Structure formats: structure tokens, C-alpha cells
Amino acid sequence: MGRTLAEKVYDAHVVRRAEGEPDLLYIDLHLVHEVTSPQAFDGLRMAGRQVRRPDLTIATEDHNVPTTDLLKPIADPVSRTQVETLRKNCSDFGVRLHPMGDDGQGIVHVIGPQLGLTQPGMTVVCGDSHTSTHGAFGALAFGIGTSEVEHVLATQTLPQIQPKTMAVTVDGALPEGVTAKDLILAIIAKIGTGGGQGHIIEYRGEAIRSLSMEGRMTVCNMSIEAGARAGMIAPDETTFAYLEGRPNAPQGADWDQAVEYWTSLRTDDDAAFDKEVVIDAAGLTPFVTWGTNPGQGLPLGESVPDPASIDDPAKRQNAERALEYMGLTAGTPLRDIKVDTVFVGSCTNGRIEDLRAVAGVLEGRRVADGVRMLVVPGSMKVKKQAEEEGLDQVISASGAEWREAGCSMCLAMNPDKLTPGERSASTSNRNFEGRQGPGGRTHLVSPAVAAATAVTGRLAAPADL
Ligand SMILES: CC(C)[C@H](C(=O)O)[C@@H](O)C(=O)O
Ligand code: SF4
């Protein structure tokens, strides 16, 4: 019987398999950031071990870095210690690091692809749940815990129990104005935040094939929000065109050979998935969340749901609690929801295409009075490219703030935070209680919706302007 894409990549990395034991997988790329690595390096130190493959390990500073005044020391002592510890660890163990202010610095899931380090058919891990982003290249990429980070640092391998496979097929073409972010929010609303649990999702179908690499990364990024172990998309011409010429991509004869292998990385026609979901792209519209998990979303044209209409008692209770936290009343049209802040950025939507979409909407327009808008590039390279294209000018002229690269307001681990009760439209991936700051209220949106919302001050799509 044929194999799925996920099975092909998985099988190619098993270095030891024994009855009743987890498989031992070889890891091709290990990404490291300041939050989940300190104990792992301490563990190595205590055991007197080295990093086995520093050449396959790369670190960046992203979660704790401020996005203004990079030349000043980090004011928050916890953040400063995290960043300083990463610097010491990388220097002690010979790991490449892109520190704050460096040209190559940025969010861990933005810099890997950008450097051409993330390639089809690889296994990629990081102590970070959104490692699923890299699956957009046909890599098997997933988040690991700190003790696993230590294992990979020491051995370049990882014990794994093989996940099941799931196909999410999106048939047809995405309608005008519907983006990758709308698509993934709609998928999660359909299958639920546990819908992918224990599975590697493969996204397939015409709508997926037509996405750019940036769009594919947005989709795979949020696989974890559907509970999946990873998300993958089979590599194709779009993938190869993105990778060709990047600093770490193969070159010359190696490139041709790589492309030949990468082309074989697709699910065989006679392969079977453990679970399958089919979605019709034609029915999709811009999508926003109203609640406190990424599955609590609806088309922008709808209204805040009434928990009383939900049959499942657990879901009803969740919805009641979410509305209370979010300060929303059932029946309110989503388009009537006023926001205080708009955040564009994160590993979900902090890439160049996202910034182009935002600038496209903001051009010749102003951010509404009383609304603050932060636009935070996912990496210093994205920032530079955006500036070369003049996007920063358009963004600043609209009244939005143009920042340095980092995780920023995606999570409250740096100075960019919501205050209690403050409401945001955010292009990030999590709307949990307090995610963007204690008491902060988050609506997950696409970059285009974020920009339109900034202009009107209420949840809106560009077509509303
Ligand atoms: C800090 C890190 C461990 C965390 C993650 O694993 O995802 C963060 O990146 C997040 O998005 O919540
Ligand atoms: S941008 Fe957000 S989701 Fe991505 S790694 Fe940083 S904190 Fe996690």
C-alpha cells in the first residue's frame, strides 16, 4: 500500500525501531530560542555533554525582545536574564545565534525558512509549539518540550511515537478577499481545537496548492491550534521557487538532485489517512474569532453567538465564559465590535506578504482616532525588505507604529502588551485569556482584516472600506 507524505518523511528518519518502544528519529534541523532552552543547556552542562551537531542547530532571540530602542539594555529583569542566558549558552556550546539587532534576527519560525534552512523532507524541531509552520515546505516539523530539547542537543535524535495521519482537503478556489488566515481559522472552527489531536495534518486540494509559501506557512503555523502534532503541505514548484538561491539551499547539481527527491515527497494515490476532512473553499469569507480559543470563530458577516443555542453543555459553558471574558453580548454583529488596538505580526502573519497586504489597505488612509496600531515585522530581513519596498512609509503615514522584529504582542513576554479590558484585532494565532496581557481581549484576524479594522475602529474587511 502507498504511503502518505508524513509517513514518507517519518520513515526516512527512523534510526532505531524496536517492538514496544518509541522510534528514535534523526533530526535535521534544531531551532532554539531563549524561553525553552536554558534548562536544556544546564542539563548538558551537568552531564558534561556537548552539543552533538552545532551545525544543525541555530538560535535566535525573539520572545523577550523589545521592539523599540534596541540599543538600550532590556529593562525587564526576567527577559534580560533569558536573553543573556541564551547568549552565554550559545557561546559556551558553539551554537550559531542571531542576537537582537543582528541582520538575521527574528522570530524563530520566520528565520528558518528565510535562510533556506527549512527544506522539504526534513525533520525540524524546536522547543516551541508553532514549529508546525515549517511543515509548509513538506518538512515534518513539530514542537518539543525542554527535556526533549536537551535530548536533541545531546544526540541529534528524538524518541517519538508515530502520530496518525489526517487529510484536510480544501477543494476549489478561495474567493476574492479570502486569505490563508481566514482559511485556517475556518478549518479550526470546523474541526475544533482538538480536531487534529494525535495526528499530522496534510493540507491538500486546489485552494492549498494555489497558496504562496507565506500563505502555506500561515496555515501550517496554526495546525497546533487544531491540536495536531504537525501540519504539512507537499512540496511543489511554489516551494522550489521560494527556496532556490536562499543562503542554505542546495546549489548546482545538488539542487537538481534535491528537487528530484523533493518531488517524490507526495502522498501516493493508494495511501490511506486515518482521518479525512473536506472543505469547500468557495463558501469561505473573511473569518474572525469572538471567543477565547482559536476554534471560537465565525465569518465576519455573522453575529456573536448565543451560548443558549449550543447543545453540548461543555461547549455552552465555554462560550458563556468566553463572552463574559471578552465583554461581548450575544447577537451583536461582529462588525459592530470596536477595538482599541490592532497588532500585525507574529510567526503566523509577520512575513513580507502580510505587510504588503496591510500597506495595500492602509495606503492613502488613516488609522481611526483612538486606535493604536503596531506593525511588527517577523524578522530583521522582513523589516529591511519592507523598507526597501517603502511599506514602512505607508504604514507610518497612516498613523501606525513601525517596529523592530520579534514576537511582540503575540504574547505578553515583552513590553508590547494589552492592558486589562483592552480589545485587540490581532494577526497572531492565540486568543487565550491574558495571552496579549492580563485581562486583554483578542480577536484573531487576517492582515487584511487587521488593516481595515484599524481604519474603521471596528472589525472590518477591506471590502467594507
Ligand atoms: C514560549 C513558547 C514555549 C510558546 C510556544 O511553545 O508556543 C510560545 O511561542 C507561544 O506561542 O505560546
Ligand atoms: S510569534 Fe507568537 S506564536 Fe510565534 S513563536 Fe512568538 S510567541 Fe509563539
Reconstruct the topology from this structure.
Layout lengths: L4 H7 L2 E3 L6 E4 L2 E5 L4 H10 L9 E4 L16 H17 L2 E3 L9 H7 L8 E4 L13 E4 L2 H10 L1 E4 L3 E8 L8 H12 L7 E6 L1 H4 L3 H9 L8 E3 L4 H7 L8 H12 L11 E6 L6 E3 L7 E3 L13 H14 L14 E4 L1 H4 L2 H11 L9 E4 L4 H9 L2 H7 L3 E2 L20 E4 L14 E4 L2 H10 L9
Parallel strand pairs: 3-4, 3-6, 4-5, 6-7, 9-10, 9-12, 10-11, 15-16, 15-18, 16-17, 18-19
Antiparallel strand pairs: 1-2, 2-8, 13-14
Bound molecules: 3-isopropylmalic acid (IPM) and iron/sulfur cluster.
What does this structure look like?
The chain is an alpha/beta fold and 465 residues long. 32% of the residues lie in helices and 17% in strands. It contains 16 helices and 19 strands. The strands form 5 sheets. It has a 5-stranded parallel sheet, sandwiched between helices. Helix 2 (38-47) crosses helix 5 and helix 13 (352-362) packs across helix 15 (391-397). The model has no long low-confidence stretch (mean pLDDT 97). It binds 3-isopropylmalic acid and iron/sulfur cluster. Iron/sulfur cluster (SF4) binds next to helix 12. Catalyzes the isomerization between 2-isopropylmalate and 3-isopropylmalate, via the formation of 2-isopropylmaleate. Residues 7-457 form the Aconitase/3-isopropylmalate dehydratase large subunit alpha/beta/alpha domain.
